[in-house]
Amino acid sequence: MPETLQTLPPLTLPPISRLTLALYCGASGDHNPIHVDLDFARSAGLQDVFAHGMLSMAYLGRLVTNWRPQSQLQTLKARFLAVVAVGDVLTFHGEVIERLQESGRPLLRVTLSAVRQNGDTVLTGEAIVRDELAG
Question: How many angstroms separate the CA atoms of 1 and 97, rounded?
């Protein structure tokens, strides 16, 4: 396991709400009823609606851009591990694990994760961020 060079301040958000899901539908243009229509979700065999994966990824991006300006974010990728339910409280974590150089520019590799209130990891990811503070 790589050594942690720096830990980002964690980001904990309020519980995922139906209002958040509805607002995200409008903002993202993703109007799949599985995320907002309880009857539709139940007809698909689910107990309830669930959050858009890209909503969780957006929050992961917020974790990084709370730490460094958006202009320094070079790449952001994620792997979705579990469904995020209405009522879930997510905490996002990041750790700088490597310093890199690309064309003489200092970069940082950051591992990322989102964990729900019961300790389950629902999302993992990685960001590459320009290290403006190094230059």
Answer: 9
Mean pLDDT, residues 67-96: 97
Q: Distance (Å, rounded) from C-alpha 18 to C-alpha 15?
A: 10
Q: Are 78 and 125 in contact (CB under 8 A)?
A: yes
Per-residue pLDDT averaged across 73-88, rounded?
Answer: 96
Which residues lie below 8 Å from residue 97, measured CB to CB, with a gap of 6+? 2, 3, 4, 5, 109, 110, 111
What domain range is 121 assigned to? 6-15+56-130
Q: How many CB atoms lie within 10 A of CB 99?
A: 13
Using one digit for the tens of pLDDT, what is the confidence trace for 17-65? 999 999 999 999 889 888 988 899 999 999 998 999 999 999 999 999 9
CATH code of 85's domain: 3.10.129.10
First vs last Cα of the chain: how many Å apart? 27
> Span 58-86, mean pLDDT?
96
Within-domain flag for 26: no
